[in-house]
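seq:
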Amino acid sequence: MNYRLLLPLILLCSAFPIHAQERWFEIELLLFQRNVDIEDIQEDLASENGAVDTANSIPLFKTQTDKLCVAEPCLHESNPVLINSALFDPNAHGFQLLDASHLQLTPQREKLSRHALFTPVLHLAWRMPVASEREAIPLHIFAGKNLALNMPQARSDKKVKSVDNAAVEIESNQLDQDLVSNIVNEQVVPLTDKWEIDGNVKIYLDHYLFIDSQLLIREEVTQDVAPLQMMQEQGFEIVNSENDVQVIKQTDTEKAIDTKQETVIKEILFDQNRRLRSEEIHYFDHPLMGIILQIRKIE
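struct:
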């Protein structure tokens, strides 16, 4: 027997089950926000100040290109609700984006858009292989507004850019150069994108289909910079007055200091793991957002 010819055949047969186990599915994802304030929610949002690590996740789509950005980190504008081919990068993961004609949750999105209490923020469908829980890699998704653009640091960065771009005009108008220098040289901590919804979804097979979601939900809230403080003031009190002699003692009085308010970003963790059935429409509920998901077999 020619073992040289037999060896490649054995290797081919041993590799075949691995490829045969790779199953591709169509996945359609619809994210929407509830138009409510965190402060108005009566439920206990216990999962506050969570953290989601997206460093090792696969980016399902990209941010919009910022032509003014010359060095990272840069703040990006919001993506459209419907992800197009320009934002979906198959070279990053090998998945296939499906066009709008394949979206079967469009009626649900349109109904949510017409309702005052809901705002759709992300809708797309794609094809991908689904692996086991151990081998599956989380997908990084984000949606909604970039709240970092509203932070004071971001406004400072814009001011610095405007000064740089108008340097000639500033010089010609002989404006206060010291003021301009202070703006340009101001030390600002670099900001990163702060999307209203941002995190990971992991879809895997373990006899059944599963989705494991960890998403940060961000909202802007106004709060006091510091609790009400009391300032001590010294004064004098007349204890006794007799024969033109006054006995006095030193007293301390408290004076309230007016508090200031600032806008900060509050984060709530959405953390759900769910078993799924293919072809069925699944709904994931949260006081601040919702997910509608359908996974379809590829015949």
